[in-house]
Protein 1
Amino acid sequence: MLLHDVIAAAALDAPTTTALIADGTRWDFATLHRRVASMARHVAGSTRPGDPVVVIAENLPDVVVALYAVPATGGVLTPGNTRHTVAELVAMIDSVDPALVIASPSELERLGGALDQREATLWSLGPHEAAELDLTAALDLTAALDLTAAQDLTAALDLTAAQGPTAEPGGLAEPDDPAGPDGDDTAWLIHTSGTTGRPKAAELTHTGVLAAVLNTALARPLHDDDVYLFPFPLFHVAAYNVVHAHLRRRPVVLVDRFDAAGVLDRIERHGVTTCSLAPTMLAMLLDEADRTGRIDTLRRLRGISYGAAAMPPALLHRTLGALPDCGLGQGYGMTELSGNAVFLSPEDHRRAASDAPHLLTAAGRPGPLVSVRIVDDSGADLGRGLVGEIVVRGDQVSPGYRGDPDATAAARIGSWLRTGDLGRIDEDGYLHVVDRAKDLIITGGENVASREVEDVVGRHPEVAEVAVIGVPDAHWGEAVRAVVVPVRGARVDADALIEWTRGLLAGFKRPKQVRVVGQLPLNASGKIDKVALRAAARAESSE
C-alpha cells in the first residue's frame, strides 16, 4: 500500500463520508480523491520521479491533498516551515534543489524575488473558493487545466471538483507500472533540527509513514464515529495523524493556526470527539473554557493525545479533574520515526493520577510494530532500570538523511535508530525519557537547535562567547536563553541583542532571555558545561 492508496480505497469504501473540514470547505472522500488525482497529474507533468516538490503554505485544504498527491507521482513532498525567515526558507530550498515550489499567495509575497534566479517552477496554492468559482472564467484562466498560463493550482483543482469525477476511484497508476512509486521510495522529506544546529532532511518512505500510522492505529485506535481535529502545522511529521484518520475513514477538522476560542467553536460546530495537542495547547483550552464558561464544550472530547513535551503533573491532575470522561494518551516519537512509536494509554494516565505516580515520568510502552532498547556507548544492551541511549527498530524508521551519509551513519547501530535521547526501561516495560538530546530545546512544541542560535548570536560584534540552553517556562514548556560573555570593554544590552536576531532567526528560535556573565562554566574536557547552566536555571526558577 502507498500513501495515495489510502484515499483511493476510502473513495471506494465511503465516497460520501466527510474526509476534510476546514473554514469554508467540506469534502467527502470522493472529492478528496479527485483532487489528489488531479494534483498528481499536474505535478507529474512538471517533475520527474524522485524530484523534491517544496510546499510552503498555511494549513490549507490543498496542502492535505499534496500530502498524498506529490508522493503518488514518485515525487518527494518537502514541506517548508512557514515560521522560518525568508533566508531560512531559501537555504532549505537551495539544499534540496526542487523542480517545483508550491506556495500560498502570502508565502509567495513574503518570498518576493528571492527565488528569481532559481530554476524551480512556482505555483500558487490559494484558499478553496469553489462556491464562487466561475467555470467559464476558470476554463479561460487555466487553459483547460493547463497551468502554464496562470500557475494557479487551486483554481485548477476547484475546476476539476466542480466538473465531477473524471474516472472511477482507484489507484493513480497501474499496480505493475514500472514508472510508479514503490513502498521504499521517499514520500516526505522533512527537515529536523539536531544537536549540531545544521538542519537535516529526514527521508520518510511510503512504507515508513504507513507503518507509523498502523502502529498508532493499533496503540491508539479511533472509533467508528470519531471526528478528529488537527491543530498542528502540516509541515510537521505530526501530519501522519491526518493519514491515520483517513485510513479509518474518519473526518479531519483542519485548524490553520491554534486559537483556543476557535478550537472550542470547532468542537461545538463539527462534533469533534478527539484531537492531538501539545500540553501548552491543552492548558490554553482549559483556561479559555474556564474563562468563558465553556467547559461543557470541552467535555465533548472523549480522547486527547499529546506529545512534543512532557505533561506537567499539575496539568495532568487539572485535566483529569475537569474532563473526567476524556482519555489522555501520550506519544513519544520524532521525525526520524515517521511519527510516534511509544504510547502511554488513558488507563496509564488514570493510574498515574491515583496510585501509580511513577508513571508521570513514563513515555509509555513501545507500540506493537517497533522494538525499543536501551544501550551504552558501545551499543550493548543495558539492564532494566539503567540509563542509556534509546534506540528503536521498525519499518517506520527513516532510512536516513538526504545528501548526508555521515549523519545517516552516525544515527544508526545496524538497523536500530539512535534517538540521541537518554532513557531507561522499568520492570513493567515502561520507557522513561530521562533527558532529550541534550542540546535540543522544545519551546511550544517547536524544536530549536541550540547550536543554530549560538551561530547567529555569536556573530554579534559585542559577543565573545555564547551558550544557548532551554530554561523552564510555564507557558511554552521551555524558553530559549542565551548566556553571553561580552567582548572585553563592551556592554551587551539584552533587549538590543534579542532585537538584533530578528530577521536572522524564526520567532520561536530567537532568545526570549539573555544573561550576561563574566565567563562560562567549563567541564573537565574544557567544553562549555551546559549541564551546569541548565541546573542553575532550574534552581533559579524554583526560587
Protein 2
Amino acid sequence: MNISVAWINQYLPPEHAVTADEAEETLMSLGFPIETRSSVGTDTVLDVEVTSNRGDVLSHVGVAREIAARAGVRVVLPVPGVDGEAASDISEMLSLENRVLGACPLFTARVIRGVKVGPSPAWLRARLEAVGQRSINNVVDVTNFITFELGNPCHVFDLAKLKGGALVVRMAAEGEKLTTLDGKARTLKADEVVVADGERAQSLAGVIGGADSEVSEGTTDIVLEMATWDPVAVRRASRRHLVRTDASYRFERIVDARTIDRAAQRAAGLIVEVAGGRVLKGVLSAGRGMDAPAQVTLRPERVCAVLGVALTVAEILGALRSLEIECEGDGPIRCRVPVWRPDLTREADLIEEVARVRGLAAIPTLAAIPVTPGAPQKSEARRRAIGTLLTGLGFYETVTFSFVSHAAAGAFVPRGMSVIEVHDDQRKAEPVCRPSVVPGLLASRRANQHAGVKPAGGVRFFETAAVFAQDGAGAAVERQVLGLLLDVPVQGRKWGVTEVQAGFRLMRGAVEAIVREAVGAGAPVAFEAAEPHCKGCDGAAYARISVGGRDIGYAALVTDETSRAYDLASPCIACELDYEWLLNAESARGGVELPPQFPGIERDVSFVVTEEVTWDEICREVGDKPTPLLVGRSFVATYRGEQIGKGRKSVTVRLTFRDAARTLRHEEADGPVAEIVERVKARFGAGVRV
C-alpha cells in the first residue's frame, strides 16, 4: 500500500512527526517491509508491504497508530462531521432493507441534499495523487480519501436515480445484469450480494458500484453508504468478475462493523465541507448487531518464556497499551482487543505484539535453542503407527492432486451429494475438488501399470487426505479420509468371484489391522453387504465397514467401467475409512491373558449354502449362541464346483474347542459340533459337505 509521509504526520502529535527515513526504519522494525520509496513533490511515498491479517494497516491512520505505538504516544484522530443538520428526516426520503444479515453484518445510509459536484480542492487532490489515485470529482474523491485515511470503503449513490426511494441489500438473482462503474456489463450469480433499489441491482456489494446510480455533475442529492461485508462473499465475487478494487481488497481483510459510524460521520462532514449541502437528520441502519469486544487473557510468565527475555509486568502492559489494547490485572492480564484489530484472538498474538513494539532486535539470538521434545499427541502417534503398519503390509503412500476431472469425480461422489467446482481458467481440465481419494489412487495405479511395475502380491497404495462435496442445501462438507487400493490377485488375465473374494480378504485384513492399531485389539470390526454409495463401486462386491456399530467407511470392487476409464488391466479393491475417527477414537483397553495350558481341538465343517448367504451371517449364527467348550471360529475357504451345484457354494468354518482345566477328548467335541451344524442347517437350509 502507498503511504504518504506527510499524510501520516497529520495524525501524529506535532512533536512526534517523523521524517521519511524515520517512518521507513520504524515500519521495518515493526514487521512492515518497504517495497519502494518515491518522491511526489515535497512529499515522500512509501510502498508498505502489509500481511493479509493486518487490514487495519491499509490506511494512514492505521500506519500512524503503529508509528505512535513505538513512540509511546496516541494518534490524533480526525474529527468526524456532524449528522442531521437539515430539518427534514432521512426516513422521508429513503427506506432501507437488509435481507442478508450473514453476508452484510451492518449497512448504514445517510442522505446529503444540495451538494454541488465539481472539482476537488487542491489539498484533497494532492492527498489522493500522492498515493496513486486519480481525482474524479469532489464527492467521489472524499469516498476514496476515507478509504485511504481510515480503511473504511464507502460509496455514494445519486438519490434521484434510485427507483422507489429504497435501498435493498439482497442476493442477486441468477443471471441478473449489472453495468458497473468501469463500463462493463456483468452477469451476476445467485451467490453474489448486491445493493439494489426498488427495481434492480445498483452495485456489486463490497466490490464495485453500478453505473446507473453514478454521481455526476448534475447530481444534487446523494446517499452515502457505509457498510461491511462478509470477506468470503466479497473475495468470491471479486475473483469471479476479475475486478479488484481498493474496497474489495479491504473488505476481504475484515472491516469491523464497530468502526462504521465514526467513519461515516467523517465522510459526511468532508462531503459537506468540499461540496456543500446539508445532511438530513437520522441514519438508516440494518444489521445483526454489534459483537462484544474480544477478550484475551495473557500470562506475563508465558510472554517471558516465549520471547526468552525477562520482562516486568509494567513493560508488558506498556507495550500493549501503546497499541490501545485495554488491560486489567497483572497476572494474568485481561486484555480487551481494539475493534480495528480482529487478528488478535489468542495469547500468542498478544505476545507477538509485545515483541513487535519492543523491537525484534531486543530478543537475543541464541547459538542453540534448548528444546525438550514432549511425547507426540495421541492423534500424531496414531498417524505414525498407521503409516508404519501399512508400509509393513506392502502399501506405498501416495500424495495425489486435490483436483480431478468431472468424470473422475462423478464416479465417486456420494449419492445425495454434489461436487464442488472451482472457477479458474487454469483448472479447465480438472476443475473439481475431489470427493474421494480413490480417483487419485487409480491414476497412480495406471501410471505404475504403464511403467511396467509388477511387485509380488500386486500394487498396493494408501493416502490420507481431505475430500470435498456439498450437501443438498449447498453447504460444503470436508472430511479427512484414509484411502486404500490394492490389486485383486489374478492369475494370467482371468478372474472371477474367487479372486475378488481373495482381494476382499486382503483388504479386510488390512482394515482389521488398522483398527487394532488405532483403537485396540478388542474393537469388533464388521463388514456388511450394502448398496454402493457411488457409481464407481460394484454393487456385487461392496461392504459397509463398522466398528462397534459405528460406520467408519466402505470397501468395494471398482466397477469394470471405471477400471476401463483408467485403462487398468486388472481389477482393484478400494477402501475409504474415516481418518478423523481413527486418529481420535477412544482406545479399547484389552486385558492380558495367559496362553492356554491345555491343547484345543479343531474341527473343520463345510456348509453348502446358496450364494446369497454371507460369511458374516454364518459366523454370527455359529457364535451368537453359547456353545459348550467353543472358544473360536474362523474362515478357512470357499469352494464352488459342479459337485456343489449352480448358485451354491461350500463355506468351510474352523471350530476351536478347549477346556481351561484339562485336555479334551475328541468325542467331547462331537456334541457341540452337531449342535452348531443343526443350527446352521435350520437357519440357512444348509447341507454339510463331507
